[in-house]
Amino acid sequence: MANDRPLAAHEILDALENVSDNEEDYRERLICILPPPVDPDCLTDEDSGEEDNVTLNNLPRNILLQSAEVMIQGQIMVSDTEEEPSDSTGRTKRRRTYAWKKRDLAKNPVNWPDVQGACQDKRPIEWFENFLDEDFISLLVSESSKYAVKKNLPGDITTEDMKCFIGILLVSGYLWLPRRRMYWENSPDTKNELISSAMTRDRFDFIFRHLHVNDNLDLQDKYTKVRPLVTLLNKTFLEFSPLEEHYSVDEAMIPYYGRHGCKQHIKGKPIRYGFKAWVGATRLGYVLWMEPYQGATTMCNPIYKELGLGASVVLTFCDVLISRGFDLPYHVVFDNFFTRTPLLEEITKKGLRCTGTVRENRTSSCPLITSKLLKKKERGAVDYRTTHDNTFIIAKWHDNNIFSIASNAVGINPKQSAKRFSQSEKRNIVIEEPHMVSIYNKYMGGVDRSDENISHYRIGIRGKKWYMPLLTHMIDLAEHNA
């Protein structure tokens, strides 16, 4: 019902008493009465009822008339006029509530069309030359030469010099030495004939000291020094990317141990210190898109800002997929950092599909069984709810721990068989795995696979400039994709 004011405590009590009993409605009601204002007309704080008869109405008059909130299953139900604070744009945000039903997600199966993507019959070196094309090389040559001229040094870096320079960097990825000058030493155990015969040491040092991409043109962009290369490679990676149905979005770390405002520390990662980047990749690790993380100024589409950082990253990647022009129902997979119910709705509006793990406090009060009770059930037990309009499903699954997941594309059935080790029985057992969990486990590891491949042959020559790890990482990405 619509009101011009919040409901008072006695009005909420009357409404709850008039609700018809429902056998399946086992939900608990909690009433939160807001602190009452000082009433100058009330000179006493005695109870309004008898002391021996303690009831809900046995409260002072100023409390009964005070605004209150009722909470059902952790969801606050207030009067229709209650609104959340306005955002920075002046628009008033409302918290979306959902009606839930215990049923599986009913979606029509998607037949992925036989659409031919980029031709895949080239050799890896040919792919590498496509990624580091003439635009890439000419940008490095021109900007590095200009940078050398600013220091009153000859700007005579040529295209062949830059290609040879990049080749030496790639060799350092699998023939690592503690210092780069050791490649040119006369010691038989360190000298590399391929490198020393291709370029002199002083020439390499000259190019390395003056390697440059961009000036500080955009003070709002903390990665303006490398922004042209990021934009250029994202365009090239997308142009030659394989056309697949499933993609994953995750974070990747670029190792860096110096000082910079964007440097991150993530505990438990293989690379704990460095720059963080948002990455979109295929199942086998081909990187289509990357965006370095820089806090609130991360270069994501500003129209998604009110949905939060995680949702902005995923929706920006979805726009990248849509920009390919094939009008296909891509399936994007991501982890619980990104997943929120508004994100699921936005992806559905775009005609795409998604699956992702979700944190329990981001389920929009979905009435699932508590994790404590689900742990007491047998391994493989699952509880799920679907929105009333069949938009998406949220489920909890008992594996080694409680696994919460949401999807707008796949549901619980058909269930798969999963092998697990039982600590109590000391043997492998077979449990039922929901279909949405199988999809997540199969397609989520693309970004991690690319990180692993790059780590085996990461460029070993390091410089003192803060953006040097980013430049070498882009070359590593091109090598990996090729």
From TrEMBL:
<dbReference type="InterPro" id="IPR029526">
    <property type="entry name" value="PGBD"/>
</dbReference>
<dbReference type="Pfam" id="PF13843">
    <property type="entry name" value="DDE_Tnp_1_7"/>
</dbReference>
<protein>
    <recommendedName>
        <fullName>PiggyBac transposable element-derived protein domain-containing protein</fullName>
    </recommendedName>
</protein>
<dbReference type="GO" id="GO:0043565">
    <property type="term" value="F:sequence-specific DNA binding"/>
</dbReference>
<feature type="domain" description="PiggyBac transposable element-derived protein">
    <location>
        <begin position="124"/>
        <end position="482"/>
    </location>
</feature>
<dbReference type="InterPro" id="IPR052638">
    <property type="entry name" value="PiggyBac_TE-derived"/>
</dbReference>
